[in-house]
Amino acid sequence: MIQYQAFLPEIWLVGAAFLVLIFELFYKSNSDRGLLKAVAVVGVVGALLSLGCELGCVSGGCPVQACCSMGTTVPTAFGGFLKTDALAAFFKLIILLATLLTLLISFRYFKANPTFYVAEFIAIILFSAAGASVLTSAQEIITLYVALETLTISSYLLAAFMKKDKSSNEAGMKYLLLGAFSSALLLFGFSYLYGFTGTTVIADIGKALATQVSSPLLTLAVIMIVAGLAFKISLAPFHMWTPDVYEGSPTPVTAFLSVASKTAGFAAFVRLFWVGLSVPALQPTWIGLFAVLAVLSIILGNLEALPQRNIKRLMAYSSIAQAGYISAGFLAGGQLGLTAVLFYLFVYLFANMSVFLAIAIVNGKTGTDQIEDYAGIWKRSPLIGVVLLVGLLSLAGVPPFAGFSGKWYLFGAAISKGYTWIALVGMIFSVVSLYYYLQVARQALVSEPKDPSPIEMNWVERAVLVISVVFIVTLGFWPTPVMQMAQTAASSLFN
Amino acid sequence: MFSVLATILAPLAISFNLIHPVAQGANLLPLLSTMIIVPVIAALLILISPEQWSKWISLAAASFELGLGIKLFLIFDRVASGFQFVEDISWLKNLGISYILGVDGMSALMVLLVTCVYFAGALISWNISMRKKEYFVYFSLLVGGVAGAYESLDLFFFFLFYEFAVLPMYLLVGIWGTGRKEYAAMKLTVYLLAGSAFMLVGFLAIYFTSNVHTFDIRALSDVATTGLSPSFQNTWFPLLFVGFGVISALFPFHTWSPDGYGSAPTAASMLHAGVLKSLGGYSIIRVALPLLPDGAKTWLPYLAILALINMLYAAIVALKQKDFKYVIAYSSVSHCGTILFGICTLEAAGLNGAVIQTFSHGIVAAMTFALVGTVYGKAHTRELAKLGGLAACMPVLGALFVAAAMANVGLPGLSGFVGEFLVFLGSYRSGFHGGFPIFQALFPIGVVAIVLTAIYYLRLVQIVFFGGIKDPHFKEEVKDGSFVEILPIAFLLIVSLAVGLYPKPFVDMSNLSIAPLIDHIGGFK
């Protein structure tokens, strides 16, 4: 029997996406489509609730016993191809929250950049979120690949969504070409894996490879898989597309790519490598590869961010560096490393999303993304000034913000496995990153405004920004609850 | 004037009586946490109350904090060794992180220093006119961070509080500074955080290499149980020393300091030179020496040379400065060299000297920066070429500056003398390193720096305060300091005098931490 709880959040997302498309038919072209937005938000919130309910049931802490028809068993579907364990649930939580915030940013964005395709945009966001969400619980490489493609093909569309805008078109085209290439690489690598093991189930691949000796073809397969997935999370040297795509895409899409897409990529990495390829013959190879990629991303991402003038480009390079930091925790692996990765992704979600929401709000008023136009934000909207300071410094890993605890765990995990040099590089380049993050904070908080007119926002945006700031500061001082969740999630991989 | 006095005295009295001396174990409020939280609460209050209240709230909080600091100093048990007023709350158990606060003799002195400078800084900031509210918010948060760093006994929280203090400093210098303020602010922040990058990796390496798996400094302080190998210690000690040293403006990583102090607003220079900078030497004694003693014995004689260059080089540079504040800034760098040199001797008198010099430098540097700021506020220039004969227009400030200069020079009777004397005594007594009397050979060079200090301070006094009045405007426009300007400076002078005239309680307190440390790790043979 199919345990539909295993993919209940995805049902909500896809259902909401179809409803949005159907309701769109009844709208006149120039109305404001409030219902569509409501349906989309309800869909994501419903997905979050069902996820929470499922998590509660599995851990035995759900107050509503009626919804726990399965007791505390981990829901599994399609012959074990989908399994929503605590790890998948944690990734889903990040992806769904990112989707919710992306929707919020997009409502603001469409007010400033009117388009007739609101319904399509919302639906595609929901579809790609569904793809990312399925990816996190995929236990089998074909499912994983299909889910990943659902996510990325939707992303190509989203990147090119402003069809009259040249840079958006460029972003979409670039993303498509390089993305298709990397997907092909990934699939090629997968086909070798299947050839070697005769199975597509990740856990069985691990078992079959356990006795295998290292061979050049197997190594090639691993390299292709790493390259294909590294592209998705923009690890250097597969990061070339990132700045152009981040700059050219509509801001909500950039936000979505930088958080949800990256989280999904790491979810794929964790399952594939720590379950399927965590065998003596291959582990040294891919850990070495990751060490190189992580250090390259940290160095290149941070150095190339220094001369940036456009805040979205800056965030693109910043996200490359962030992927590098997270990879340092990922390659350390084990309970400690994966907990650190999960915790950092959670923190990264709030920091990045709040900054992108601030970018969208500022852009809605000023129409530019140039850093120099952020001068004197503190006078125009003190809250945005605070958000930029807190969000960016959390990304830089400065206490008392959550990014600091996150980096502490990531680098701690790396050091515990003997990768002290990666941690040292990471910390030194965090100081470099501080320079460019502070340049934005300096414009926002120190300089005087050229145009002192206040920047308005609605109460939802205000609430979200305040909650994000409170979250980032609280998690810096008191990370224990989220850490515990992350620990449970990480340990579910090893059971 | 009376409202100012009332704002000072009322909170002072309240906080002073809040904690009863006898019932040490049964305090209603955990003393040390209160000292971190008071400035943070003050910051929040300032944030939500009207702008004209900001300075009053800040002053009240500072006075309250001062009361707590004095109280801590008085009720501190001078017989028992070890940490007192310990608060220990488990925070992340499986990662060995706990929220542990506690003070021993050395950190109690440092906490007293923080409260003194906080109080003086709150008064000096009285006439801030631009973006008042934010100014006092950052100012208060900064103090909360520094106080936390001095009280923390857990490496994680130590690091957290330390960096927490750096960030408001960036904004204070960047927004309210003078001259090339944005450059200076960025330089200062990047240098300090680069130093702390080594600290963080070092802390994590210690945690994962040691056998005890905790960030608790008390548990890590015994090499016999942590089992850190000599080669590990030899690798990490110099990195940690330099990481901490950057905060104390260790040569060649000192260049952030003159630029930073030159540009910072007065209260920020006071806090930075007075308490944040002292954190470097303090953390070497608190963390690097006890955790990595073998590394210390290998490296300290060589690092002593860096400290000596600090003393001498900064003093020579100070001689040539054209800006009033830069002279003081370089003087502060030079004094930090003395502190680091004292630590390097690895001898009880030398380390006690370093602690007392840290305290003294904190008070005296804060006082001197307060004077420079006040004079600048009145004369509107800091260029030495344009200043002259100010003693005629501002006799009280002039007299106070002469006193401050003497304290910097190390005149007996003022605090500077005690620290420097002990440092040199320590270097004389220190053991031989590899059969060579390195400290005995080095310390006469250090004494040269003292002479240079006397030269540049006397030159400063002569140029700025004596001689003819350079600018005729000075005569009509420049007035002597008002009550709120004189009060903080006089207060700091009294503290400096107290240490200078009766150093025993201070040295005894410092020795409570230093004697067991030296017993434990042993000096040079």
| Residue-averaged pLDDT of chain A | 88
Quick one: how many beta strands of chain A? 2
* SSE arrangement of chain B, N to C: HHHEEHHHHHHHHHHHHHHHHHHHH
What's the helical proportion of residues of chain A?
over 70%
Count of distinct structural domains of chain B: 1
The termini of chain A sit apart by: 23 Å
Structural class per helix/strand content of chain B? Answer: mainly alpha
Strand content of chain B: under 5%
Number of helices of chain B: 23
Reading side by side through the largest sheet of chain A, how are the strands ordered?
1-2
Oligomer: heterodimer
Query: Element order, helices and strands of chain A?
Result: HHEEHHHHHHHHHHHHHHHHH
What topology, given as strand order, has the largest sheet of chain B? 1-2
Radius of gyration based on Cα positions of chain A:
21 Å
Helical/strand content category of chain A: mainly alpha
Describe the fold and architecture:
The complex is a heterodimer of chains A (495) and B (525). Chain A has helices spanning 8-24, 34-58, 86-112, 118-137, 141-159, 166-197, 202-210, 216-232, 241-248, 251-276, 283-305, 311-332, 334-366, 377-380, 382-396, 402-416, 420-445, 459-477, 480-494, and strands spanning 76-77, 82-83. With 495 residues, chain A is mainly α. Chain A has a domain at 282-495. In chain A, a hairpin with a 4-residue loop joins strand 1 (76-77) and strand 2 (82-83). Chain A is globular. By secondary structure, chain B is mainly α. Chain B has one domain (2-521). Chain B is 75% helix and 3% strand. Chain B is built from 23 helices and two strands. Chain B has a two-stranded antiparallel ribbon. Chain B is globular, with a radius of gyration of 22 Å. Chain B starts with a helix and ends with a helix. At the A-B interface, helix 16, helix 17 and helix 19 of A face helix 6 and helix 7 of B.
